[in-house]
Amino acid sequence: MSRKLTVPDGHAGRTVVSIPPENTPSHFSRLPAAVPASPVLIGGRTLVMIAGPCAVEGREMLLAVARRVRAGGAAMLRGGAFKPRTSPYAFQGLGAEALLVLAEARELTGLPVVTEVLDPRQVEFVADHADVLQVGARNMQNYALLAELGRAKRPVLLKRGFAATVEELLMAAEHVMASGNPDIILCERGIRAVGQSTRFTLDVAAVPMLKALTHLPVIVDPSHAAGRADLVAALALAAVAAGADGLLIEVHPDPEAARSDGVQSLTPDAFDQLMRKIAVLAPAVGREFVVPERGGPAPGTPLQMLVRLREDIEGVDREIIHLLSQRVEIARHAGDVKRSLGAPVVDPVQEAEVLERARQLSEAAGLPYREVRALLRGIIAVSRHAQRTGDTGSENLEDDE
Ligand code: PEP
Ligand code: MN
Question: What lines the ligand 1 site, CB under 6 Å?
Fold first, then answer.
């Protein structure tokens, strides 16, 4: 195929996603009304991560995952409201209710929202709530839907059908453009191939191919291609190495309990890990991507700043507990060694030395001595408990005091 897609003047393959202030349902008018335009540019040097659950399953889960993926480096939030399920008996999504929850998540985190639209009759309604309209693989050649999206005032995230050629994907994009909408993001999400061992086969070559043929941004969905959470990171890294402008990744706070696509959903921790790897890879392939610094500058409304700072604090707490578990592990080994030496496991002299350090540590950190000392006492109590019982579990520690 030699022909390039039509590229409207000045468009140059960059799709800008902004959050128009009017895109705030009146339902949330109690929240600060004006959302400052925070455009996300897809197709520039910066990689754009879009993350969130397969389906919006409820308000709490969505808000929690939105906060976590934002802290991990996502620039946009995904979440299905209307789900195209292979089985008519499977969970079909929460519909309009989910759109309100997505809008609330945007309001709280500042992340623009991507959600799927299944039917031409839904386009206007979904466009009133979402920032980017997704066309699923099963609908790539639904021409009535594509035409309606051509008239929408929102960018379209167009997924490749799982039996569609690259040319057919481009022609589907052309349908949207021909009806007047030039803002299209192409998405490779895996196709059917002979003898595939994964849910779909990620066509990595389609990424440079599409980039050679069009000026449209190209992103990759490694989650649906892999169909297994443990393979998602490898495919995501391959996609970035192949030149993808961004990734669409499913993240669920509790994948095992997910109502759809739990097996391929990353936990928020696994998402964080992947984002850190991508931040290392990005400069090697000429792209920019940084994991947001905790407590760093927090643009947005005061409410968004507060939500973000709270998430940052929770992140620090998670790390403190992680470090504590490392300390407990070491203390347990030390306990085993002491036992093998016939020495008492609890050593008051050594514990006193640890507490002695409180003065120096608190001074160096500019923290109050008494509180730091109390904290170290608590840390010692947790370690002592593990040394005695050989357990790091959640038993009551009170009797160790
Ligand atoms: C999705 O992104 O939730 C989805 C249904 O993907 P696909 O259309 O690629 O199967
Ligand atoms: Mn899914």
Answer: 54, 80, 84, 136-138, 159, 189, 221, 224
